[in-house]
Design brief:
Strand order of the largest sheet: 1-2
CATH class: Mainly Alpha
Order of helices and strands: HHHEEHHHH
CATH superfamily: Winged helix-like DNA-binding domain superfamily/Winged helix DNA-binding domain
CATH topology: Arc Repressor Mutant, subunit A
Radius of gyration: 17 Å
Number of domains: 1
Number of helices: 7
Largest sheet: 2 strands, antiparallel
Number of strands: 2
Length: about 140
């Protein structure tokens, strides 16, 4: 399993945003400069993370970006799922990929398909044990 660059960058952005938690709001420009990510990428991820309810964004004077919840209440699983969708290591367990017409050639005759949800839950559970507060200490 390998995270996409966008999921990786989302964790980096959330980590940077959490370092500002409790202080003044931070801008996407500031987050881009702080993380070394391109501003368009940062803006896109801020939008995705805001829609997922992990960040709050306000425009105008006094505006900026803050965490939507305390850092201890945001897990790595939350961040990854905001960008990637539900954690699913195989196509047969990924409803998003199936909706896009991607199917496994062994689907229906695979003797391990029924076991993948257990594996997916274990991976998600491990990622859910790591919160943003712990990551940024």
């Amino acid at each position: 399993m390998r995270l996409s660059n966008m999921a990786d960058y989302a964790v980096v952005i959330m980590s940077a945003a959490s370092r500002h938690c409790g202080f003044a709001r931070v801008s996407a420009t500031d987050l881009a400069a702080e993380t070394g990510l391109a501003l368009p990428t940062t803006q896109k991820l801020v939008s995705i993370l805001t829609k997922a309810g992990l960040l709050r964004s306000a425009r105008g004077t006094g505006g900026g970006i803050t965490l939507a919840r305390p850092a201890a209440a945001i897990t790595i699983a939350d961040i990854i799922e905001a960008v990637e969708g539900p954690i699913a290591l195989t196509t047969c367990c990924d409803s998003h990929k199936q909706a896009m017409g991607q199917h496994c050639v062994k689907e229906g005759s695979c003797n391990v398909q029924a076991h993948w949800p257990v594996v997916n839950n274990a991976v998600r559970g491990a990622l859910a044990q790591i919160n943003l507060a712990g990551l940024t200490r």
